Amino acid sequence: MGNQVKFPGISEELQKILDADMDNVEARRCAREAFKDIQLSIDHILFKVPHAGLKMTESYEVNSRGLEIFSKSWLPETRPKAIVYFCHGYGDSCTFFAEGIARKLASLGYGVVAMDYPGFGLSEGLHGYIPSFDKLVDDVIEHYSKVKEKPEFRNLPSFLFGESMGGAIALKVHRKQPNAWNGAILVAPMCKLADNVVPSWLVTQILIGVAKLLPTQKLVPTQDLGELAVRDAKKRELTAYNVLCYKHKPRLQTALELLNATKEIEGLLEKVSMPLLILHGKSDVVTDPSVSKALYERSSSSDKKLFLYEDACHALLEGESDEMILRVFGDIISWLDQHTSP
Asked: What pTM value is reported for the model?
């Protein structure tokens, strides 16, 4: 169990639900249902976006691997300019901060589709466990390919939107589907983990050996990513409300899969050919902004833009000042508008 958070003013029954072992998907689903109204009423700029009139749909669907996948869509009142396919970060889900990001995009005319990966959020699977990064990418491709074939989406431009680990997933999706997307928005993409969150070479070798025997064990030493990612002190306190977020030490196999994925991506930057918008905080100590700069310089795309934000950290859309969050959103919307105008 991770550090249990006690929320003032809630019933003992609700606190008991939140204290349950989130390794099991039923416990995560129960916690989300019981806590969602409180979550979305917190004092965060993402949840102050007007959303009356937006069409929001939640669904569960069993994929080809037999796993029940949760997904959600947010559509504007009028025909969307494009559909944005959201890839969330490590440990996260598409039902908390992603909800605010999606509402913002939908309120400005863009449809948004998001899913929880197996083992995350409301999808089936052991919480925070990635036995194979490539299979996770295949799960994303399978789900989003089906959505793209829906009659109401089929002729609309489609963009990937990846935050942190989701940025790595978006790049791997593009690698497997090089001509399937109109572009990607990458927010602090996990092309390389910062040195301070990666165990030393010796510890890594030990972990590789132990992972063969105990792949699901939560044994990887790391700093508190929430503390590192969120710069604004008040917003850092609000991250406690993200009750489905995986907050334990990384599982052994998960950590190795993330490390191997970043090594692979770092060696494939030249093969990235789709239109790109890359946004990264210069003070990010979770994912390395220098590799975002390398992606911009080395990718073969002729249509690419890079924003490096002074004094900003990892959680650009969730953990910075309201002014910075609105500035980053402005850059995203401006790029989307340029790529969807007739």
From this structure: 0.94
